[in-house]
Design a protein that fits this description.
single chain; 220 residues; 4-stranded antiparallel β-sheet; 3-stranded antiparallel β-sheet; 9 helices
């Protein structure tokens, strides 16, 4: 039987302040399951699990709007991760492996940030060299030869950017917010998918749902 909690009880069990619970309620990502006649908010076990998973996503630097987007993908107010925890209560074996994948994602966040940093440094260095080459070519006499050199430099520039992008894509994986399985998309999917700084809209090969999946470094 599900227990009921006040706002203060919920905050204490989740290790956050009452103001945090009230803030999430105000932003529409943690609504109480019931209200008393006097307007007192009542929460249940599923609300507690939802709050804990909201805190988990916030620790991964998800914004409130990004969390809302995850809710919208499931066309429901409950976080998809909470749905996973609900299923775990009725299943064994493979469902527990999903939680292990989430734990892996948390551990790999530092490695993911390092990959991101190296990628941006490499891209900026490549762009800088390209700009210098263009400036140098602009000072050369106009001729077919130098035009050919310019085209060659442009092709090399594009090739380097594609190579850097490909290498980065092979070092990361994504966690599906619906089934919580880790997967690696094809390079084509990686390039053309809509994305945020930390998620990419992909079709999961396991559950076949298309949603914004959390990016993480592959396990070494």
């Amino acid at each position: 039987m599900s227990r009921s909690y006040t706002t203060g009880d919920l905050a204490k069990l989740a290790g956050v302040s009452v103001r945090t619970v009230q803030y999430y309620d105000k932003r529409g990502i943690l609504s109480p399951s019931d209200l008393t006649e006097g307007g007192r908010r009542i929460y249940v076990d599923s609300d507690l699990e939802q709050l804990r998973m909201i805190c988990f996503l916030r620790e991964l630097d998800f914004s409130i709007e990004q969390i809302k987007r995850l809710f919208a993908e499931k066309k429901a107010k409950l976080d998809t991760t909470v749905n996973l925890l609900d299923r775990v209560k009725n299943q064994t074996g493979q469902s527990l492996e999903f939680l292990s994948d989430i734990s892996l994602t948390m551990k790999n966040q530092l490695a993911w940030r390092r990959l991101q940093k190296r990628m941006w440094i490499s891209n900026l260095a490549t762009i800088l060299i390209f700009v210098l080459c263009v400036a140098w070519l602009a000072s050369r006499p106009q001729s077919v030869v130098w035009q050919g050199v310019g085209i060659g430099i442009g092709l090399v520039y594009v090739g380097i950017l594609l190579t850097l992008s490909y290498r980065f894509s092979r070092k990361i994986a994504y966690i599906c917010p619906n089934c919580h399985q880790l997967f690696q998309p094809t390079y084509r999917e990686f390039v053309f998918a809509r994305h945020t700084p930390k998620t990419r809209k992909l079709t999961c090969p396991h559950c076949h749902e298309k949603s914004y999946c959390l990016e993480t470094a592959k396990e070494a």
